[in-house]
């Protein structure tokens, strides 16, 4: 008698096999599919289109009552491998899928079959799923993405699932921007009304939940810290003296440059986020806050500049409390040297010539230079006052800017 080979066994099993129907001998019996999804790799997270791309390894096993043989009759063969395209395959489908690519076709995927009819097949899929994003805490956000898996055509009484714990393969699932926090699964039963509306069809679904945490280091270094530093430098530039003698120059253009920079940063943030009505991302809120601080600093600097110019043009000495603040003693009168200098010199010359007295001329010159010295002293005192106001304003705004930064991100960083 000729020795039976694996080829003969496969021919025997598939001779009258029909892969179109469930491999159960009784139509009213239920089949159980054992499934365990492995997250092999997190390929991409597209926040704008709200899609998640994954490489999944999906081993499935079930009992095929038509693929059974007696090992003793077949030379002790206990297991065979045949292409999966020749046998019945469960129609498990990811419902919220956007795109799918089979890594291996059914002709390249082999089913492992035991003599008791136990079938095991490993499916490898590159899938893109729909994942609504909640980016309100960006870049410290936590995303919950779901994979809805189930049979497309078989109802609950025809096919059920034995779900094993979802697995993350740590060696290959790492992503430069996202940390996979967890990967869990649960079974749910869903009921759908039939197309005729005369009965309810129940199906079993498996909901896999992937929890992703964004790694914020890139956004902290590239956006958060530069935004804070730009506004801080802008505040310093608005209130620091522009020359050694305390002269004040036009500073609004410097502040407007900062506002333009904030607009560019805000555009960078919103460009990476989905157009959602949930709310502005946390980093976007921070940029708006920093923009508000910059606007307030520009307005405050302009007010101080106007007050300084008015004080000098009105030729009045500082109030007594300001003199006391700087330990100064200034005569409380209007500065006569605010009048044109040439006119006063002519008056002095005419007065001296009229008196024709050398003593009177000398005394007049002394008074003239005393008044000039008093005017310079008053001017210097006003400069000292507004320099002090600049310093206090700068310190307050820097402290406010630092406080707002820590207040905004403290719950997420510490």
Largest sheet: 9 strands, mixed
CATH architecture call of the largest domain: Distorted Sandwich
Within CATH, the superfamily of the largest domain carries the name Neurotransmitter-gated ion-channel ligand-binding domain
Gap from first CA to last CA: 79 Å
Explain this structure to me?
The protein has 414 residues and is an alpha+beta fold. The protein folds into two domains: 6-215, Distorted Sandwich (Acetylcholine Binding Protein, Chain: A), CATH 2.70.170; 218-413. Helices cover 39% and strands 26% of the residues. Strands 1, 2, 3, 4, 6, 7, 8, 10 and 11 form a nine-stranded mixed beta sheet that branches. Its main location: membrane. Keywords: Ion channel, Ion transport, Membrane, Transmembrane, Transmembrane helix, Transport.
What would you say about this model in short?
It is rod-shaped, with a radius of gyration of 42 Å. The protein starts with 5 loop residues before the first helix and ends with a helix. The chain is 39% helix and 26% strand.
Can you lay out the helices and strands and say which pair or pack?
Layout: H1 6-14, E1 31-35, E2 38-46, E3 51-63, E4 79-83, E5 92-94, E6 97-102, E7 110-114, E8 118-130, E9 142-151, E10 159-163, E11 167-168, E12 178-193, E13 200-214, H2 217-239, H3 252-271, H4 282-313, H5 320-325, H6 341-355, H7 358-413
Parallel strand pairs: 1-10, 2-11
Antiparallel strand pairs: 1-3, 2-3, 3-8, 4-7, 5-9, 6-8, 7-8, 9-13, 12-13
Helix pairs in contact: 2-3, 2-4, 2-7, 3-4, 4-7, 6-7
Keywords: Ion channel, Ion transport, Membrane, Transmembrane, Transmembrane helix, Transport
Pfam families: Neur_chan_LBD, Neur_chan_memb
Subcellular location: Membrane
